[in-house]
Q: What sequence folds into this?
């Protein structure tokens, strides 16, 4: 496909609107970091509740993420990709308002109670459902809209938006808390942190009215004229007809049952998701300050090292965006797996010999840089494109549920594993990195430059 055969401005504008869902994904999962101590003070400590209740409250959004991932396939297949994202935007908005003011209607403001704790968790779970839906449907939406030769780059924008959303909320939380007393933060500040999410959520919901439904979904629902209009805006009249014919032929020749293309494509989708989490990335992201402190950095130094990691995350996500459609998906995943294995095995060795210092930071940066240029964005790219049109909604949902479940498992087992042995913990993530290399080398097909319909032929052979 030549560069002149699609409208760059139109496709990029649609993609930027969709990636607001990714930004909200990052924003919602990270907003708790600034409010966590205040929530503990207000809802947990004041009632004499345990640290277990605190942990469950702080991670309750993850339960919503699993539910949202599971529901995404149903919504995407029944009401479409665009309307499903509108529902996610509404959930983000309601979660922001409710988490900021959980007393609304039923409780006395500022009076902690078990009922208020339940309703706060309810609002956080609602936001998690929005995250789960967005994590599945945003890459699916972009993948179904994008021309084949820039699809990898456009879907990778979503990973950049997730990282950027986290970075934005760190600064927002800092701006709200800066110069304020602990008492003010514990009574008002934490509420404003949650409320701030209503701004990008409202913007996302409004802008979604201006983007089209995906041509693949429209064709699935036999709305070929509407599908053709969207394809013409993106690809031009002549190319649009060719693409629509390809879409229709793939839809007509299959029943649409989940395993009608064989089990291997579903297994690959699940394993991509599981390996993305089992290599330990969220342990590094969630527990970074604690990791640095345990290895000898002071509190201020550990926070500074976390900021350095955040900058590395952004830079190497950009590397993936610039190379995914030139080098291909497989080479980037393989390079990333090698880099992650080197980083994790080095950290395991340093941990075993109790060597702390700059070397630890260097190898954590090697690890995170390797992940961000490969498994971070490329996993989402592949999940958005490997599944055939007729089963994409359900298959992506299965992969995303596997991903959030793996995320929850790895994150929740980390403290207990570290208590047993730091060297074995990091060695385990290094071993997963090696297994991820073998998995990609043996099982994952290259998808660079192929249309979604051409990719279906891999599974129908």
A:
């Amino acid at each position: 496909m030549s560069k002149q055969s699609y409208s760059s401005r139109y496709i990029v504008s649609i993609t930027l609107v969709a990636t607001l869902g990714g930004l909200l994904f990052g924003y919602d999962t990270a907003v708790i970091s600034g409010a966590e101590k205040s929530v503990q003070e207000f809802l947990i400590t004041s009632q004499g509740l345990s640290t277990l209740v605190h942990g469950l409250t702080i991670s309750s959004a993850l339960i919503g993420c699993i539910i949202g991932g599971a529901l995404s396939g149903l919504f995407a297949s029944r009401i479409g990709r665009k309307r499903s994202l509108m529902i996610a935007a509404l959930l983000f908005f309601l979660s922001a308002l409710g988490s900021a003011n959980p007393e609304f209607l039923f409780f006395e403001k500022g009076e902690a109670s078990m009922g208020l704790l339940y309703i706060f968790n309810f609002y956080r779970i609602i936001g998690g459902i929005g995250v789960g839906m967005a994590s599945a449907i945003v890459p699916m939406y972009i993948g179904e809209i994008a021309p084949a030769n820039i699809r990898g780059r456009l879907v990778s924008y979503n990973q950049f938006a997730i990282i950027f959303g986290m970075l934005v909320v760190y600064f927002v939380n800092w701006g709200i808390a800066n110069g304020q007393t602990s008492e003010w933060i514990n009574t008002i500040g934490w509420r404003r942190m949650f409320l701030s999410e209503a701004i990008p959520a409202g913007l996302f919901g409004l802008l979604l009215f201006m983007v089209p439904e995906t041509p693949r979904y429209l064709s699935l629902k036999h709305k070929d004229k509407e599908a053709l209009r969207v394809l013409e805006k993106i690809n031009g009249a002549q190319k649009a007809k060719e693409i629509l014919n390809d879409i229709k032929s793939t839809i007509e020749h299959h029943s649409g049952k989940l395993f009608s293309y064989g089990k291997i494509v579903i297994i690959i989708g699940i394993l991509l998701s599981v390996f993305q989490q089992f290599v330990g990335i969220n342990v590094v992201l969630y527990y970074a300050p604690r990791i640095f402190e345990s290895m000898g950095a002071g509190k201020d130094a550990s926070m500074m090292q976390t900021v350095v990691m955040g900058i590395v995350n952004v830079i190497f996500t950009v590397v993936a965006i610039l190379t995914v459609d030139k080098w291909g998906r497989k080479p980037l995943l393989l390079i990333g797996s090698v880099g992650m294995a080197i980083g994790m095995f080095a950290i395991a060795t340093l941990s075993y010999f109790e060597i702390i210092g700059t070397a630890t930071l260097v190898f954590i940066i090697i690890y995170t840089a390797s992940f961000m240029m490969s498994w971070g964005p490329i996993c989402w790219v592949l999940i958005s494109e490997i599944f055939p049109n007729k089963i994409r909604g359900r298959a992506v949902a299965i992969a995303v549920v596997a991903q959030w479940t793996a995320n929850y498992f790895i994150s929740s087992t980390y403290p207990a594993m570290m208590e047993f042995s730091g060297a074995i913990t990091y060695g385990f993530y290094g071993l997963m990195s090696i297994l991820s290399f073998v998995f990609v080398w043996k099982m994952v097909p290259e998808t660079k430059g192929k249309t979604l319909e051409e990719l279906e032929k891999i599974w129908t052979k």
Q: What stands out?
A: The mean pLDDT is 87. Residues 264-460 form a domain with the Growth Hormone; Chain: A; fold (CATH 1.20.1250.20). DSSP finds 21 helices and no strands in the chain. The chain has three domains: 3-211, 218-252, 264-460.
